[in-house]
Amino acid sequence: MGFSTDAIHEGQIPEPITGAVITPIFQTSTYAQYELGKSTGFEYGRTHNPTRQALEKNIAALEKGKYGIAFASGLAATHALMSLVKAGDHIVISNNVYGGTYRLYELNMKNYGLDFSWVDTTDLKNIEQAIKPNTKMLYVETPTNPMLNITDLRGVTEIARRNNLISVCDNTFMSPYFQNPLTFGIDIVLHSTTKYLNGHSDIIGGILVTSDEKLHERLRYIQNAAGGVPSPFDCWLVLRSTKTLAVRMKQHEANAIELANFLEQSGLAKKVIYPGLKSHPQHGLAKQQMRGFGGMVSADFGDIETAKKVLNNVKIFTLAESLGGVESLICHPASMTHASVPKEERDKMGLTDSLVRFSVGIEDIEDLIADVKQALEK
Fold first, then answer.
1. Is this structure's pTM higher than 0.70?
2. What is the pLDDT of residues 196-235, one digit of tens each?
3. Distance (Å, whole) CA 57 – CA 50
4. Is 170 a catalytic residue?
5. Which tens digits make up the pLDDT trace of 86-131?
6. Residue 378 annotated to the active site
7. CA dihedral of 170, 73, 173, 222, whole degrees rounded to 10
8. Which among 6, 120, 170, 371 is annotated as catalytic?
9. Which of 6, 67, 98, 187 does the annotation list as catalytic?
10. Which residue among the candidates 195, 248, 346, 357 is catalytic per the annotation?
11. Cα separations (Å) of 132 from 49, 57, 80, 156, 163?
12. Closest CA to 251 of 148, 311, 325
């Protein structure tokens, strides 16, 4: 079916007892068994929940995958990926990923005997050169947070297959509406459902999607064994939100394009980073593997004082962490989302103290542009 049709219907059937069109919130920790050894297929809330099951089927369909495995947060899903490797294994990963991913892997998982190489994956040669005999996983984020660097997904898949590696792509910034990494051969797609999939800034969640049965079995086991599952209510809220994902993403993109053009053409920012701009170094690749350019814009204002002026004086944009909500947010990655990344590493990738990240919402674009203008004029 088409994207919007799947978003509204996949994984959701009228509730059989009442005929309720909307999947109910099954707020239960356990289920009655008819007799010893016989159940409805639902036995315990951590292991099975109909609302969570509906969400997993829904997002798996949107990502063109077979299996969805939902978690209590994006980082819980990110952590679950490490169940696919063991002490002594090596992972090649994009150097500019979400700061929480860097913190979890580099500052925590290394203590368990894992080794990570953080490379600029926009150049496939860097990936090839980083691979070792003990490399087991290739993890990319594209576009990256917050530099919006784009990695060739087809190239990543080819490298992973040649070297027998598990390939992972964090697709949070694009959402399934604009990009489907599984269709390029990526093994596992990661989302923070907190972001665009939910889009209303009222839940924390994550999900992994795959079409590989063995990977699914392992990740499903970890979901149950570690127990980091989302609540039925949070699952229900995300199901509510995926129904409008297509219309929301169209407006996010339309507004982001106009804001990026305004910032670039006005000269108010020293550098504007947005995949939809011809000035973006991977603009051509973006057009090849994405169906749109998303709602995230980053701008370097040249010095910290100018950046502060924008951050502290906007009125419609809200100074806050997170992204992907219907309301516009603005943040300072160096001191907020990526504070755990060492300054020398931030500087290498261009993540300067004067960089500002815009999560462009779906308000009237004229008001958003006017808001940035008035902030700078102060």
1. yes
2. 999 999 999 999 999 999 999 999 999 999 999 999 999 9
3. 11
4. yes
5. 999 999 999 999 999 999 999 999 999 999 999 999 999 999 999 9
6. no
7. 20
8. 170
9. 98
10. 195
11. 41, 36, 23, 16, 10
12. 325
